[in-house]
Amino acid sequence: MVDRRPLIAGNWKMNFDHLRSIAFVQKLAWTLKDAKHSAAAVEVAVFPPFTDIRSVQTTIEADRLEFAFGGQDLSPFDSGAHTGDISGEFLAKLGCRYVIIGHSERRQDHHEDDALVTAKTLAAIKHGLVPVICVGETSEDLEKFGASAVPVGQLRTVLAELPKDADIVVAYEPVWAIGSGQAATPAQAQEVCAALRAVIAEVLGDDAAAATRVLYGGSVKSINIASFMREKDVDGALVGGASLDVEEFAKIVQFPKHVIA
Ligand code: PEP
Questions:
Q1: 174 lines ligand 1 (CB under 6 A)
Q2: pTM for the full model?
Q3: Which atom of ligand 1 is nearest to the CA of 239?
């Protein structure tokens, strides 16, 4: 049985300039230190805007903070005439461990499809980054096809092109739950995360399925995180809005201490 270290990941989206990012990371560090948080028990990662990454990197490295960090997106290309884009090589050189790919806001705002998500995932792997591959259904999909069909299909398309030993994280994020305050039920999150793990087993093999962390994202807060983490196939959370409040995010990270009825 592979031990999957839970991952609590904060997607800051387009929030915090570089000065605020430094203050946030420092405050998160002392809040978790005071609470005697164990990084060995729960991994914490933050995903700042590109313009903050250097500041976050130097703060984390200078104070030897046990946080990982990553980009919110990357280009499928390595370099060249792609104005405004950021390559995986640049992110890797800044010490990023992770990169979010295929977030529903990128799929919606930038018309990213599964082919582009696949190309970006391959670029991440090429540069030694761990892609956090986001999949999820809209409310219309949910009504028409149920919860699993769309995210499973999205993931299958990406996985089909990956090397069998690819190190990935998968985030199940129902689009209707993102930023809406209406989270999925833990049972629904479990059902879809289990279906996603089954696809990983089918395409990349049982060992990969056992080792890969599958996160839930969508209106995660300190009051509901423990109920998701109780589910067998939920290995962490991708947190948007609640990751912008240090106290709230620190409480989410400390979910093992929560008592649930
Ligand atoms: C997200 O943007 O990935 C997300 C899950 O947002 P929120 O937690 O605000 O729903």
A1: no
A2: 0.97
A3: 8
